[in-house]
Design goal:
With 252 residues, the protein is of the alpha/beta class. It has helices spanning 47-54, 77-83, 100-110, 115-128, 144-156, 174-186, 198-204, 222-226, 229-234, and strands spanning 8-16, 22-31, 36-40, 62-67, 70-71, 84-87, 162-166, 190-194, 207-212, 215-221.
C-alpha cells in the first residue's frame, strides 16, 4: 500500500509571544485526509495561537507544522495559504466587497485565476454553500447565517485541502446551525473545527482533540471524551444542562 500523506501534521510545536507569555508547550497531532476533527479547550488554552500557525500567520516558535507534506515555511507560504482556509468567527472579517460574487472571487483572482475558470470557482463555491442565488447581493444585506455561509464559500473558492473553522456555530439560530452542519458534512475536505459548542462537535466530528495549558491533553472519539466527566472537569469543559453525549447518534 502507498502511504497516505496526512493533511496536517503538528510536531513539537511550542510558541511564546514577545511579552514572554508561553501559549504552546509542545503540541503533537496528525489529521488524515478527509477527517473532521474538533479542537476543544477552555479559553486561554492556546487554540487561536495553534490555528494561526497552520497557515503561517504566526511563526518563529519551535517544532514543525506540515500541510499535505509541505512544511509551513516562507518558501512554501503561497501554497500553504491556498491549502489551509481559515473561516473566522465573525464573517464580517472576511466579507468586504460590494457583492457576494466579488467577495468569493477575490482570493482566486488574487491568485491569478481569470475569466471562465474564475467564474466556475465562484459558481461552484456558492453552490456548495447554497448561496448561488445571492451572488449579486451586498453581503451586508444578508442574515448572519447567510454571511457565515458566504465566508465559507470565499475559502472554498481557493479549493483548500483543509478547512479550519473558528466557532462556526456561534450566533446562529437553530435552522442556520443545522444548514451549516449539512454543508460541512457534504464537503470533501479535511475539517478542523475550533469550538466551545460541544454538542456541535459531537454531531460533526468523530474525533476531538482537547488542548489545555498549551498541550494536547486528550485525543480520541468525541463521544468518549465528552462522556469522561473527570477529563471534562479537569479541562474546564462543560456540556449544556441535561445534554447526554451517550444518547446522541452521531452523523457520519
Amino acid at each position: 500500500m502507498v502511504p497516505v500523506t496526512a493533511s496536517l501534521e503538528v510536531s513539537g510545536l511550542a510558541f511564546a509571544y514577545p511579552d514572554g507569555h508561553q501559549a504552546l508547550f509542545g503540541v503533537d497531532f496528525s489529521i488524515a485526509r478527509g477527517e473532521r476533527v474538533a479542537l476543544l479547550g477552555p479559553n486561554g488554552a492556546g487554540k487561536t495561537t495553534l490555528v494561526l500557525h497552520l497557515n503561517g500567520i504566526l511563526g518563529g516558535g519551535t517544532g514543525t507544522v506540515t500541510v499535505a507534506g509541505l512544511p509551513v515555511s516562507k518558501q512554501h507560504m503561497a501554497a500553504i495559504r491556498q491549502k489551509v482556509g481559515i473561516v473566522f468567527q465573525d464573517p464580517d472579517d472576511q466579507l468586504f466587497m460590494p457583492t457576494v460574487r466579488e467577495d468569493v472571487a477575490f482570493g482566486p483572482a488574487a491568485a491569478g485565476i481569470k475569466g471562465a475558470a474564475l467564474e466556475e470557482r465562484v459558481h461552484t463555491a456558492l453552490e456548495r454553500v447554497g448561496m448561488r442565488e445571492f451572488a449579486d447581493r451586498p453581503p451586508h444585506h444578508l442574515s448572519f447565517g447567510q454571511r457565515r455561509r458566504v465566508a465559507v464559500a470565499t475559502v472554498l473558492a481557493m479549493e483548500p485541502e483543509i478547512l479550519v473553522l473558528d466557532e462556526p456555530s456561534s450566533n446562529l439560530d437553530p435552522a442556520s446551525r443545522r444548514e451549516l452542519a449539512d454543508i460541512l458534512r457534504s464537503l470533501d475536505v479535511t475539517v478542523l473545527m475550533v469550538t466551545h459548542d460541544l454538542p456541535y462537535a459531537l454531531e460533526l466530528c468523530p474525533r476531538s482533540l482537547i488542548l489545555s495549558d498549551g498541550v494536547i491533553a486528550a485525543d480520541g472519539p468525541t463521544g468518549a471524551l465528552l462522556s469522561d466527566e473527570e477529563l471534562m472537569r479537569a479541562h474546564r469543559l462543560e456540556l449544556p444542562f441535561g445534554f447526554d453525549p451517550k444518547s446522541v447518534t452521531m452523523g457520519a
